[in-house]
Amino acid sequence: MTRLQATKPIKFVESCEFVELCEFVEPCEFIKPCEFVEPCEHSEPVIDRLENEKKPRPQKPPNSLWKELAMLAIKIVAILLIVVLLFTFFYGVHRVNEPGMSPAIRSGDLVLFNRIGRTYAIGDLLLLDFEGQRQVRRVVARGGDVVDITEDGLLVNGALVQELEIFFHTPRYEEGVDFPLTVGERQLFVLGDSRENATDSRIYGTVDINDTLGLVITVIRNRNF
Questions:
Q1: What angle do CA 150, 153, 156 make, to 5 degrees?
Q2: I want to staple 105 with a disulfide (CB 3.0 to 4.6 A). Which of 11, 44, 97, 101 is the partner?
Q3: How many CB atoms lie within 10 A of CB 134?
Q4: Alpha-carbon torsion 140, 143, 149, 152, what sign?
Q5: Cβ-contact 159, 123 below 8 angstroms
Q6: CA-to-CA distance for 86 and 113, rounded, in angstroms?
Q7: Which residues contact 185 (CB under 8 A, 6 or more apart)?
Q8: Could you give the 3-state DSSP secondary structure of residue 203?
């Protein structure tokens, strides 16, 4: 029987993670000794990989935890500072403590007002200060309008005003301003929704726009009432 002999060296495949160290591979007559087999540059011996997996993960040093807490505290302080600046120069909150705007706004309700929004339209609610007491009042007339109060009700420029949100008759006060009244430029005539007992422009006359505190934009109800 003729014995086959290798006429050409067999081409070897580089080892990978599934091939153990070459010292365990036995040479044969058709395969070169394993000392010529080099491990793949992208592979990692199985034993070394298992040992690396068993190593504990590095923990953050205590100093990094304090740094994170310090950064969190700085962010909280920055947010609080922004809120304080907003409610000091741009917005404000007032707790109503008088019944002049009932039932739209009751005593105990909170109102959020815009300090820089002082362009008012008819029907807008604004915040003003009268004799040291803050009031929320409704705009019923602006500069150039003529206001009169008769037995028929509130008249602006000779027309009877239809106010769907008002449930009370609008009377004159015996001790108050004289009607008809012409509203000056950059002035407002304001009334409380509780027309029978509210202290408003029927008592202290027109209000200068520069003396108002801001436009009411939100009413927060007090659930206790």
A1: 85
A2: 101
A3: 17
A4: negative
A5: no
A6: 12
A7: 143, 144
A8: helix
Structural domains present in the chain: 22-54 (no CATH), 92-220 (2.10.109.10)
Q: CA torsion, points 132, 121, 123, 83, in degrees to nearest 10?
A: -60
- Give the pLDDT confidence of 55-101 residue by residue, as tens digits: 566 665 667 888 888 899 999 999 999 988 887 888 999 999 999 99
How buried is residue 26: exposed, middle or buried, by Cβ count under 10 Å (0-12/13-18/19+)? exposed
Do residues 137 and 128 lie in contact, with contact meaning Cβ atoms separated by under 8 Å?
A: yes
3-state secondary structure of 52: helix
Residue 224 in tokens: 């206790």
Contacts of 158 by beta carbon, 8 Å cutoff, 6+ apart: 146, 148
SS3 (DSSP) at 47:
helix
Q: Which of 190, 198, 184 is nearest to 125 (CA)?
A: 190
The amino acid present at 71, given as its one-letter code, is M
* Range with lowest mean pLDDT among 68-72, 153-157, 185-189: 68-72
User: Going edge to edge, which strands form the sheet with 110-114?
Assistant: 91-95, 110-114, 212-220, 125-130, 133-142, 187-191, 207-208
**What one-letter code names the amino acid at 167?**
F
What is the pTM (predicted TM-score) of this model?
0.66
Angle at 215 between CA 210 and CA 219, to 5 degrees: 150
CA–CA dist 16, 37 (Å, integer): 11
